């Protein structure tokens, strides 16, 4: 038995010398000094030996177990160091490898459209004024001369919130009130871009969210001819100097008189095509002279001040420019669509 223990020790030490990985080390340790290991088995069988042999075998078994224990611990350190060195070596950065391609981000077609529109208006002296997306009913409607329960409200299907009187703006026109209250009695020349929300049936032509770009000019002696000239100038810069524009009578509660502006169809040059529904004209904005009630609500005396306002649809404009057939692509987040721009 003593011989067997000594051989076991010698063999284990030799085997240990060769181990370089944690897994083999663990296996060997289990096999020799683990719960079911050889030394443990020997210790358990001591009771079967002749009584006079027991102390010597027991003592040697304990000694060897201890020695091996520290031999294993020592080896464990070595193995750890070895594995660390190996992983460092493997993890070394090869600077000669070709890099991973970085996907290039793009601007959303609406953003591109908006930036071009800003540029034109900036040239014409209009600065950007940011107004809130979450509005109150008063500013979105009542102060714009659309009292509660007035049938004109049907023009804007509204998203209401659980907070009484808090809604998502249905157009950028409430920004007129905010800008006026900010500037009164100074003259104003601003554009108000931003997302609008309408509780509407989604179709190829209309979405529940879309941008509008409002314009507002307030001052003394601002007349309808200023509005016409300003819009015509914008249309020429946007669609080309040769483009014809026409004005049609219309109605908005917050402008009087009101008009809608059409530009000669940019796709067929006014010949008539599917996009302009064979009329040769495309509607580009609603506009008019700011209603006296609205001027007053904004803090301007309508006897002294006047102004004009207009509202464009940047997505519709982008659809024309890029030949996009369906407005739902804008917020569908389909990369195949977005990557084209
Ligand atoms: N706010 C109007 C709409 O959403 C557009 C508009 C803006 C009309 C400014 C006149 C003046 O339909």
Number of strands: 9
Helix content: 40-55%
Output the structural class. alpha+beta
- In round numbers, the mean pLDDT is 92
The level-1 CATH class of the largest domain: Alpha Beta
What is the strand arrangement across the widest sheet?
1-4-5-9-8-7-6
Report on the structure:
The protein has 341 residues and is an alpha+beta fold. It folds into two domains: 2-90; 109-338, BirA Bifunctional Protein, domain 2, CATH 3.30.930. It is 40% helix and 19% strand. The protein has eleven helices and nine strands. The strands form two sheets. It has a seven-stranded mixed sheet with strand order 1-4-5-9-8-7-6. Strand 6 and strand 7 (255-264) form a beta hairpin. Helix 5 (109-123) crosses helix 10 (314-322). It is elongated. The chain starts with a helix and ends with a helix. The relative contact order is 0.10. It binds phenylalanine (PHE). The site of phenylalanine has 11 residues, from strand 8 and strand 9. Phenylalanine is lined by residues 171, 173, 214, 252, 255, 286-288, 309-311.
